[in-house]
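User: Sequence recovery, please. Input:
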């Protein structure tokens, strides 16, 4: 088994230094490493990327939920904040892109919309 697998994961945060992490798993050595690539906001619990892996979207799971859009540089790895919008509900918990990737849909857990 050889190769490198990479992942972006959202987390529940306890401090400003936590947030979205970039994980890489080296199958040859069976080692996992992580790097925080976006921090300074609360509970980016759900994260998705577009097909080209150039954009990343995160749901900020809070009472006044926010959705964040980032430019994604896989080679650094690095996320650059592009936009923040309200989720129009409380505690967004799920994100989906439509087939054309022109529209992002969010589901809010507490407000149920």
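Assistant: Recovered sequence (113 residues):
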């Amino acid at each position: 088994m050889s190769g490198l697998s990479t992942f972006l994961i959202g987390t529940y945060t306890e401090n400003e230094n936590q947030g979205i992490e970039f994980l890489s798993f080296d199958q040859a050595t069976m080692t996992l490493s992580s790097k925080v690539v976006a921090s300074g906001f609360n509970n980016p619990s759900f994260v998705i990327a577009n097909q080209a892996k150039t954009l990343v979207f995160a749901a900020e799971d809070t009472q006044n939920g926010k959705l964040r859009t980032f430019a994604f540089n896989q080679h650094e790895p690095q996320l650059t904040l592009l936009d923040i919008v309200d989720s129009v509900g409380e505690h967004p918990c799920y994100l989906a892109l439509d087939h054309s990737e022109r529209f992002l849909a969010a589901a809010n857990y507490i407000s149920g919309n």
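The longest strand covers residues 31-39.
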